[in-house]
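Minutes, project check-in
Item: structure for the 725-residue chain
Input as provided by the requester:
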Amino acid sequence: MTTETPETDGPPEGSAQRLSFPRQHARTQRFSLGAPRAFTVAPDGSRVVFVRSASGTDRTGMLWVLDLTDGGSVERVAADPRTLLGGAAERLSAAERARRERSRESGSGIVGYATDAAVELAAFALSGKLFAAELRAGTARELPAPAPVIDPRPSPDGRHIAYVSRGALRVVAADGGDDRALAAPDAVEADTVTYGLAEFIAAEEMDRSRGFWWSPESDRLLVARVDDAPVQRWWIADPAHPDREPTSIAYPSAGTDNADVRLFVVGLDGVRTEVVWDRARYPYLARVHWSSSGAPLLLVQARDQRSALYLAVDAENGSTRMVHADEDDDWLELHPGVPCWSPSGRLVRIADEGGARVLAWGDRPLTGPQLQLRAVLDVTEDSALISASAGEGAADPELGEVHVYRVNELGVERVSQEPGVHSAVRAGDVTVLVSATLDEPGTRVSVLRDGKQVTTVASHAQRPGLTPRVTLTEGGARRIPCAVLLPTGYDPEVSGPLPVLMDPYGGPHGQRVLRAHNVHLTSQWFADQGFAVVVADGRGTPGRSPAWEKAVKGDLTRTLDDQVEALHALAERFPLDLGRVAMRGWSFGGYLSAMAALRRPDVFHAAVVGAPVTDLRLYDTHYQERYLGDPRTSPDAYRNSSLVCDDGLVDPGEPHRPLLIVHGLADDNVVVAHALRLSSALLAAGRPHEVLPLSGVTHMTPQEQVAENLLLLQVDFLKRSLGLS
């Protein structure tokens, strides 16, 4: 059963091209191109700024403004990269490519921007050059600045723009004059020190992509100084081009030294004052918040992530005082939007208390076990806007849903109503609500004023050429969230039980069972090739409860136990052929797939293993040590969870299941050494397997032909391995 159809010259804008799903999926970058994103709302409610490309196949992001008027709304382009660059192709510096890899950004053009407090001036970088856009006037221009420019951000008053270039934090007047360095590495430090950039693990694992923060008065900044000298050097080579030198990266693998991160208050005159805290005990600078509601606020973590401090900074002398301390026997999770101050100066944070993840407002929790907090979206004097899932204490579990709520001391009010996955951006009385549902493809963006819709933001994303036939359910004694997808038009009376493809991510920070259309498209395409596809979010995945996430502490193999439990429970209700079961996955899902074939060959008969972590000592400190501890003191935890230490590799009594190992040779997150070590261990054990190296591909696969053919090759392997060809 196939969805492949002949190609045509092109459809009307916004509709699906008559291409095979793999080609359309790749060409549209998973149907994300043309969809509006990165919203900013002006505090006076007069306009909304966002990024959107011109069509569902156009990768070039443009900056747009939606003017909100009494009579309606008008969209206009604030900055078009093609015009600003004179039609020249975009060129990215190595540092900018690395930043985009950390954020999984595969678009081009304007992929990010920052504004002043009034949302009248925006700054962004193109081809390493600095640009500013006057959002009211609708004009944009290049400003003179030494290239390559990274992460430009206007001051709150709009008079200056700070940015990073060649490891130095610089500032330039908004009119392009008086460009100067405020903090720069000296000649001795030049190879290892940067000012104003996030270190690798902050960007990759802490969701902190920034390295500098303006004061609300626009007279100084907090600036991170990162020294990578203590970090071991790894080399990323391109075997397809032996004439090119390998690239050196500072990679802090588990149990090794991290970068040295310090923080300075830097005035516009260049005077620096170091911010002082116990960096030996709390080396991780996880969050920085600076607003007019209070002193600069830091969240710093211990290396084992079981304790953290909330610190208020005296910007005059750099001293800090503890505002709050947290401890947890397992680990302390980091969350978007917190910590911050309320306008009255109360500390706002997300905390795990009483078995629930709650919103803490000062000393009071404002939510209970009915909600599982995901993020704080906005804070005003009298309320917080949050996103949350239904917690384990909810009367109605709302499987796979994420909603936006308004919370204050009087109670909780749900802002999003339709079943689905929702998020929001708010300023003043205007809220931009971004919604995804199971019934409609893509996202719908509604602009609300005082809770009532006043307009929508158009999407140019293509409509997929297929529709998921998905059932959201729970499986097993643990009530594991699951999605089951059957082939389009499947009739059990005619076709009988189906071979099964487990299609999980299955690990931390990777919820897949969601009540949204597009997240199930690839799974449905695999189903239409003749499989019953099962997606299971077992222990360790987010969205349910702190205990559910932290159940994998010390032993990541529990994630496989939940896949098996879900599979066997679902087989009692769905037409699953348990004699033909495979698993596919990428990253943690790739690790899980390899583990399935190696450790449970009695259940799984083949596996597609994409970019897997196989030797867990080779993955980074902040992620791996959170779950397994330090390998120098917890070697057994690493040995038990690592695939290359698996005694089952050489067990003659177990059947050998086919594995297809896929890995990008340019991957600097899960380096290709993971795949090579697994292949070597399999070869030494006499276990047949296939290896597919992807030249020039990183942990993402944005290249159209690569992304398309990866899906086709996986189907071919699965059918061969399960005897379906």
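Outcome recorded: The first helix runs from residue 21 to 27.
No further action items on this chain.
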